[in-house]
Amino acid sequence: MDWKMFIDGDWLEAESKETILVYNPADYSQTGTIPRGRGVDVDKAVLAAKRAFYSSAWRAVKPHERGWLLYDMAKKIREQKDELAMWETLDVGKPLKQSYADVEAAARYFEFYAGMADKILGETIPVEPGLVDFTVREPVGVTAHIIPWNYPLQIGARSCAASIAAGNTVVLKPAEDTPVTALMLAQFFDELGVEKGVVNVVTGYGHEAGAALSGHKDINHLTFTGSVEVGKMVMKAAAENIVPVTLELGGKSPNIVFADCDLEQAVEWVVRSITQNAGQTCSAGSRLLVEASIHDAFVERVKNKFEELTIAPGAQDPDIGPILTEKQFNRIISFIDIARNDAMVVTGGERYTSGECMNGFFLKPTLITNVDPTSRLAQEEIFGPVLTVFPFETEEEALELANGTEYGLVTGIWTQNISRAHRLADQIQSGQVFINNYGAGGGIQMPFGGYKQSGFGREKGIEALRNYTQLKNIAIKFQ
Ligand code: NAD
């Protein structure tokens, strides 16, 4: 399928007419092309969004009517769930049931923020007799959204829905590898008759379209989800224009397992949290911290589970699909090579090429023990189905290990001792803490974001609306 970009209510090629090929990571077959948008195309999209934001037509839309638009999006997403899930699997490679979960999460984002559209409230502030002081939360204007390749539908939906609910207009740039479902969202908006320019989707490479968007002087807010390295670049670009940014970056999230926990549950979630989307998840539970007294037994259980997992193209709905690209696969293997010398690979660590997996880059889930907590294996985001294990003796040691990386996105704590769980949650440096669960099925309502290098600002929940509103104080004197 040859896709076009959605700009100012029209479906356009790139000004240059150039395109980028899009592949199915399961077998490297070509699934279509997208326009190679660059600065000139980004300009068109941002100017369309700016025009739309100041247009009387968009200003006349009442908050609850913006809510109706978003409810209609949720409905459309559910109606088209099979097609959306199929494309998400074709683009990203993820198992079909995970794509269906992403489709439902996307619908839930639209639904949640639909309900919020007419509940963005200000405050009245007591100052002095004869003065009425109040605040209003206004939309910021044009919001730019640069999203990664691993959860394009969910992540595109989560920030655009919040932004539109608040009354902004948006320009979305999906990753060049996985653009299709973001374009399908644009298609749905188009079918619903959204005002021209309110929603724009520009495709292209990060260093071209992405860089042009993050440095554009006419955007008023930038939401970036992706790597730390690119996050720093977009933040610098936005700083030139004094544009606020929300950064959702990587992670090296721990599951902390105490001997008194429900072991069955803990094993299941530890495995799931590192193998979902083949470990290509920002909030993957990529470090297992386990109390020394159960270390060997727990590792054995995880190893057995890993070896039971099915590996196949996402369309066959296995447990694990392919790694997105050869480059990403080789990066993961380079970490496993380090482990072979400096640590111990308990299971996995090899490419899987059986049957229909011959042409894609599939990796057996990999369990690594005897890891030095200061090593690259322990500190860097590997972004694959690779779990590193660290024993601990005391709660203090567990805390030190948990907080001992530059990241701070999510932490899981597994224990029946509720006081200990609270003590740890209190001192953990991460944006989300899960006790006796992990990830909790997406948690549309739960604010999500990072401490330290995992970023700042919060997506999801009511909290995200802060990104997309600015506060005005109005003081009225009366006699
Ligand atoms: P990436 O940083 O390479 O790319 C993210 C997006 O930025 C893409 O759309 C890309 O085209 C664009 N981009 C690339 N270079 C750019 C530039 N110079 N200027 C502007 N935009 C540019 O990340 P990725 O490989 O797509 O995704 C993986 C990373 O994203 C991981 O680190 C993962 O942890 C992180 N991530 C974080 C979250 C979260 O919510 N915290 C969610 C998903 C992924």
TrEMBL record:
Gene3D superfamilies with a match to the protein in the record: Aldehyde Dehydrogenase, Chain A, domain 1, Aldehyde Dehydrogenase, Chain A, domain 2
Lineage: superkingdom: Bacteria
PROSITE patterns found in the cross-reference section: ALDEHYDE_DEHYDR_GLU
Presence of the UniProt keyword Oxidoreductase in the record: yes
Aldehyde dehydrogenase domain residues: 11-474
A Pfam family hit: Aldedh
UniProt keyword annotations, A-Z: Oxidoreductase
InterPro entries: Ald_DH/histidinol_DH, Ald_DH_C, Ald_DH_CS_GLU, Ald_DH_N, Aldehyde_DH_dom
Gene Ontology MF term list: oxidoreductase activity, acting on the aldehyde or oxo group of donors, NAD or NADP as acceptor
Active site: 248
Family: Belongs to the aldehyde dehydrogenase family.
Name of the featured protein: Aldehyde dehydrogenase (NAD+)
Organism: Bacillus oleivorans
High-level lineage: Bacteria, Bacillati, Bacillota, Bacilli, Bacillales
